[in-house]
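Problem 12. The chain below contains 150 residues. Write out its predicted structure in token notation.
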Amino acid sequence: MTKAFFQRALVGADGTDASQLAIDVAIALAKRFGSELHCIGVIRPPSPETEAEGVGFEQLERDHKAIRDQVGSCADRARGEGVQAITVELDGDPESVIENYGLENEFDIIIVGHHHLNRFRRFLEGSTSDSLVEHSSASVLVVRAPSQES
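Solution.
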């Protein structure tokens, strides 16, 4: 007996162009395979440096609203295509939160966008997609946005 592919899919929504492209791919995949799609948004806690600069409760509320809007839009688009969609908003480090949520909920595939970060930013912030590919027990599909050529 063979297992159906991609019954449960997880897509990261962060409002970037790469994320929007990943959502497009996730919805198409979920529609094709009849998958349940979870749209997850993760609010990164403010760093000590950011807190020292005076970013406070108001900014955190704006971040929560933005994530709520992004995962809501993801789910609305999926439902418009006939896909069962669930929204998830969590706080923490995106790499570990997505990885742990994926593990706890036994997803078959995690779909994320890839941002073209320069080496310095990648060193400072890390890469969610790289981390998930390395550490997730689920298959990971990294959707690359076209390069911005100048």
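Discussion. Strands lie at 8-12, 36-43, 85-91, 109-114, 139-144. Students who got a different answer should revisit the alignment rule from Section 12.3.
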